[in-house]
Amino acid sequence: MAGVHTFNGAHPGFSQVRLEGLGMTIKDTPEEWEIRATETPFVGNKTSVRTDEVVMPDGSVARRDYQVHPGSVAVLALDGEDRVLLIRQYRHPVRQKLWEIPAGLLDIPGENPLHAAQRELYEEAHVKAEDWRVLTDLYTTPGGCDEAVRIFLARDLSEAEGERFETEHEEIDLEYARVPVDELVRLVLAGDLHNNCLVTGVLSLVAARTGGGLDALRPADAPWPARPFAV
């Protein structure tokens, strides 16, 4: 039937989804419209704001302001009791303390995201993991920011060796918890948890389990076109 979504197998076996009769592949693709002019009115410590004059399909030109971001990684660390490692941190823009999964910026251009994720898990939770997979990739707010995030699944957890990383600023008073996956799903759907990487990560985990299973997830060094890196 034309216009009906069809799925060729369960996740992660299907690679393309087509709209029958339309020949349309449901997959994000690179594209860049003409930019007539660009400026950077603000440059901050880690990010900046850029203004582009973009040519629209009808030939008109519109100004688009957006945050330029280096990209991030996040880690859904799953222990042997099916609990997810969480941290609680103050986030000033939203004036809340949020429960989150360990995450951090890709501070070095071209940095291997797996190395960055391993570093963040060590620095924020003093934990290491033996098994790493790519859980999902996303753009956090593509209408106003170019931030790309890769969320890793980390398993076979253990305490990291050596001294704990010396924290500063908002990380000084971090709180920690390990929460069962089922309880996290309930809290997400109840509207009690709002961090985008936590919400996306835990729901992706459940989806992966009901599909091809966690061992069928992409390898930790899978290509990431949004933020190319050296293996």
UniProtKB/TrEMBL annotation:
Its protein name is NUDIX hydrolase
Q: Which UniProt keywords apply?
A: Hydrolase
In what residue span(s) does the Nudix hydrolase domain sit?
Answer: 67-201
Give the matching InterPro entries. NUDIX_hydrolase-like_dom_sf, NUDIX_hydrolase_dom
PROSITE patterns per the record?
A: NUDIX
Q: Give the matching Pfam families.
A: NUDIX
Record organism: Streptomyces fuscichromogenes
Q: Give the GO biological process terms.
A: nucleoside phosphate metabolic process; ribose phosphate metabolic process
Q: Name one GO cellular component term.
A: cytosol
Which Gene Ontology MF annotations are present?
hydrolase activity
Which Gene3D superfamilies is this protein grouped with? Nucleoside Triphosphate Pyrophosphohydrolase (3.90.79.10)
